[in-house]
Design brief:
Structural class: alpha+beta
Distance between the termini: 50 Å
Strand order of the largest sheet: 3-4-5-8-9
Largest sheet: 5 strands, antiparallel
Strand content: 5-15%
Helix content: 25-40%
Number of helices: 13
Number of strands: 9
């Protein structure tokens, strides 16, 4: 994209040099170094170049990219490229980004804010959270985004749906990085939701993606301001507010003990109201199924082939897999009878440490 090449003979071998960048030629070693392949992971459209001084450089076209949803692979890292997307191309000022491989071959050197944001987008799409977490330190600016930078920044929004604990860590760190600057930026994702998810999954966040105590406290101050405007209000309106408030209180107490070498005598915490959880849906629907009146069955008929043999756990797992793939239909009378037999424990299930027939039925009811 925007590049042309010409062949030159150097030391008895043919090299493909860039016309626009005459000191660079296409990297074509007999055996690719493992470090270079690691850095290339997640950048399928990169062109690897090398200079006359043997400096390795990645040229990455500035095109629209997306991580398609794959129902068969919930943690896919495949990337779709949209080279001719007009809405993207009209804001492009750099046809490609240049990333120099550091002499240690451990990371890439970015040359602009746009190249940093684009590499961050690629790392998150590849679910390379540790590299993304480190890269966020380079997202610094004292001005508003250009049109090119803004569209790359907005492309991060859909990736916030990733529920991996390290993904939440990356997004909350990005929130802190931009909130600390002189310019206010509107995040393409929900700062409060990311902070809440980060706290509730804190025990599963990898060590390399953990925020420092100071960073976590700054994050709590930002989110606490968004969620609870009045500190004297001791009745939180939802569970999120209470958890944020309690973790903020914990961090303040921890900071106090670090500064004064002694713990606080007491801390204040909130007990959240018990929210109406979606899991109650199963109970209400089961109750409806069991309270059907005889009149409702007058003009109703169905065919149901009863499971006569004990149902093994392998088949149960396969049934849920088929449901996830859309290959099994419960939305009919036979589905009702199958669930009813599980609830009434008429259907035999392979022996296990516990009787899980009611639990399985409860999971199936919302799918019915």
């Amino acid at each position: 994209r925007g590049l042309s090449f010409s062949a030159r003979e150097v030391d008895g071998s043919i090299r493909l040099y860039s016309v626009e960048l005459p000191t660079l030629y296409v990297y074509n070693p007999r055996e690719w170094p493992k470090e270079i392949l690691t850095l290339l992971s997640g950048i399928p459209h990169a062109l690897v170049m090398v200079s006359d001084t043997q400096q390795v450089i990645f040229l990455v076209p500035n095109v629209a990219i997306e991580r398609p949803v794959d129902a068969r692979n919930l943690f896919t890292t495949e990337i779709a490229l949209y080279r001719n997307l007009d809405s993207w191309n009209q804001n492009v000022s750099a046809q490609y980004f240049s990333y120099e491989v550091h002499i240690s071959k451990q990371f890439l050197i970015t040359t602009s804010l746009g190249s940093t944001l684009y590499l961050l987008l690629l790392r998150l799409m590849a679910r390379n959270y540790e590299e993304a977490f480190i890269l966020i330190d380079s997202v610094n600016t004292d001005r508003t985004f250009s049109a090119e930078e803004e569209q790359i920044f907005k492309a991060l929004g859909p990736l916030a749906k990733d529920t991996h604990p390290d993904s939440h860590a990356c997004f909350v760190k990005l929130t802190l990085q931009l909130k600390d600057g002189p310019i206010a930026f509107e995040s393409p994702y929900n700062d409060l939701e990311q902070a809440f998810s980060y706290i509730t999954k804190l025990s599963r966040v990898s060590a390399k993606c953990r925020l420092t105590v100071k960073q976590e406290l700054s994050l709590m101050e930002i989110c606490y301001t968004l969620s609870v405007k009045d500190e004297t209000n001791t009745a939180p309106t939802n569970e999120t507010q209470a958890i944020l408030f309690n973790y903020r209180t914990f961090l303040l107490a921890r900071q106090h003990s670090l500064e004064f070498s002694e713990p606080k005598e007491s801390v204040y915490s909130l007990t959240p109201w018990q929210p109406v959880r979606k899991s109650w849906y199963a109970y209400t629907e089961i109750k409806k199924l069991l309270e059907v009146t005889p009149e409702a069955w007058e003009n109703y008929s169905l065919e149901y082939q009863r499971q006569t043999e004990s149902m093994g756990w392998q088949r149960v797992v396969e049934m849920f897999r088929n449901l996830a793939r859309g290959g099994y239909n419960l939305a009919n009378g036979s589905g009702f009878m199958f669930i009813y037999e599980l609830l009434s424990k008429s259907l035999e299930l392979a022996e296990g440490p516990k009787d899980h027939r009611f639990t399985i039925a409860s999971l199936l009811v919302p799918m019915y």
